[in-house]
Amino acid sequence: MAVPTYEAMMRPTLEVLADRGRQPFRQLAELVADEMRIEKAERASTIESGQTVYVNRVGWAVTYLVQAGAIRRPQRGIAEITDRGQKLLTEVGGPISNADLAQFEDFQEFRKRSRRKTKPAGSAMADDLSQSTQTLNTDDTPEEVIVHTVATVHAALTGELLDRVMQLTPTAFETLVLRLLGAMKYGTSGQIEPTAASGDAGIDGVISQDPLGLDRIYVQAKRYDRDRSIGRPVMQAFVGALQGQQADRGVFMTTSRFTGEALSYADRVGVRIIPIDGDEMASLMLKHSVGVQPGYAVTLMKLDEDFFEDL
Known about the structure:
alpha/beta, Trna Endonuclease, Chain: A, domain 1, 2 domains, 10 strands
């Protein structure tokens, strides 16, 4: 038989984790293949990158279940079922699909990140959540399929990045924020320095944009739970710290999100503040290759008309 789709592998993946507890990914793929009775010949089939098809599809099943909060990764290379995953097994009678995962806000946010990268704002696709459970549109051109696939991979990676960032210590998170700003070319003519652990008055780093330090940007880094919102009082405290430094510019980067009141206040004060929430931070990490590395790459070829005209 053909290797089952990644959606068909969702339920067996959860069942294996429910029965056997947390598993290393490679072992999990083998157990799912055993559970689904995938034959030896099918297990040998590979995609162009060299990875076996069934391992790749179990990987995608895990990725989507992680985005829905049904699986967690307690440590590197390990998968573990959550209470939500146990609930899915109980409440869904048959195969588990993306349509079942769409009930969860976490999964909806994951799909929204994918759509923001591929569809213009206000389009029918962007506004229709039911469409978000469809991986591909049969009317898409091959190039559009590739763009959609890359966006889906990166949307999943955004969530994985934030999960990993949440495991950092507060000091390590501050270091990450400063390295990200450095990768964005801030401080290239000057330097980026962390402040001392004590007595920083709410400032975690200082970017000198010129060799003499005349042009400075002050940085605040807050590693908060992703479901927590940063309100106006925290933003006011940052503004107070900037004013204490006689500064007129600051970057406030966090793993969580800002309330509308906090953003409105930041727009009105007499200093320039750039607020960067968790999703934007993860997107910037992807864009500037911070905490990520290249994966599978492919080059699309096209006809070279100039070559033939020169013959």
